[in-house]
Amino acid sequence: MAAFYGIYIATIFSQSQTDAVGLVALLWEYLPSIVITVGNFLVPLLCDQIALLERYDPSLTVNVALMRSVFLRMVSLGVLLFTLWSQITCEQDISPEDCTLCHYNYKSYPCWETRVGQEMYKLALFDLLITIAMLVLVEFPRRMVVDRSSMKLVQWVGRQEFEVPANVLGLVYGQTVVWTGALFCPLLPLINTLKFVMVFYCKKVTLFYNCRPATKTFRSTRSTVFFLLVLLVGWGLALVAMIYSVAQIHPSMSCGPFRSLPSMWTIVPNSFYGLTQTTQDFLFYISSQRFSIPLFLFCSVVMCYFIALASIHGKSVNLFKAQLKLEAQDKQFLVKQIEELSRTLGVER
């Protein structure tokens, strides 16, 4: 709760500091991103110490740590968006006169789409800077000290552990930021692609030269399903943010392609009715029950077929496994028979 409240206060304070200049202005601009990144770094460490007192099983400890990290990252992003929207739509301590004319806080946010896109861009950029800084300022010096020092305390601390779940969650978090900000910053997917390439090589260097294997084990199959579920949650969060922005918030009157419309969604029916009559009839047909119900039935039949096929293949795999076990038992039985026969006949090995 303290981390979420800190993000809320930092966002409000950052948005209010419009008169700052120089390095101070840069610091205030990146203050929400700094607070979110620091919280994502420190809170999991605190949760790991709490997990030692909880004394869970190793596998359960990993799952609990992952759930806490996911909750922290997703809710942090949600708090940032909620704070921005509450400032834009005048739901905070802002005079209603600022929102009467344009239906949003046009004085503080003349181009609110640009401001939201900037916040998502700063989150992606600051995440990359933190990754590089951790490599250069923490992990590499730590490896140098551990390799060159013989002190018991230093050797007890050892090199940094490379934890796969935490790194995968970082990628999922970065993808969620991109999904959330792509509507407001169209170049963000390209920027995030370049960022992921740089992060990959940074992680490769730190894995091979600075880290040691993690002591906590986890099951790859369950973790894969969990990561896909987390990615689905992140996509849902980004979808909610996009729907709310498109349907509820009035577009900026001074900039953007939707400045002459009451909402972003208005462009969809306007574009639809601007199509030819044949295209409209075709789109109406594929959205009608005459097309959707047969399509649903066909997809259901295909899905049942593949489910039955997967079940048959699974039974075949289990049968083959049972045959392999029987063959192994037959081999062990034959080896024992040969040994007994050898002892009976007095044949030396």
Would you spell out the secondary-structure blueprint of this structure?
Blueprint: H1 2-16, H2 22-29, H3 31-54, H4 58-88, H5 97-100, H6 112-148, H7 152-157, E1 160-162, H8 164-181, H9 188-209, E2 211-213, H10 220-247, H11 267-273, H12 277-286, H13 289-345
Parallel strand pairs: 1-2
Structure description:
The protein is an all-alpha fold. The chain is built from 13 helices and two strands; from the N terminus they run H-H-H-H-H-H-H-E-H-H-E-H-H-H-H. The protein has helices at residues 2-16, 22-29, 31-54, 58-88, 97-100, 112-148, 152-157, 164-181, 188-209, 220-247, 267-273, 277-286, 289-345, and strands spanning 160-162, 211-213. A two-stranded parallel sheet has the order 1-2. Helix 3 packs antiparallel against helix 4 and helix 4 (58-88) packs parallel to helix 10. It is flat. The N and C termini lie far apart (72 Å).
Mean pLDDT: 79
Number of distinct beta strands: 2
Ends: how far apart? 72 Å
Helix content: over 70%
**Helix count, per DSSP?**
13
Radius of gyration: 29 Å
Main beta sheet: strand number and arrangement?
Answer: 2 strands, parallel
Low confidence ranges: none
Order of helices and strands: HHHHHHHEHHEHHHH
The proportion of residues in beta strands is under 5%
Secondary-structure-derived class:
mainly alpha
Shape: flat
Strand order within the widest sheet?
Answer: 1-2
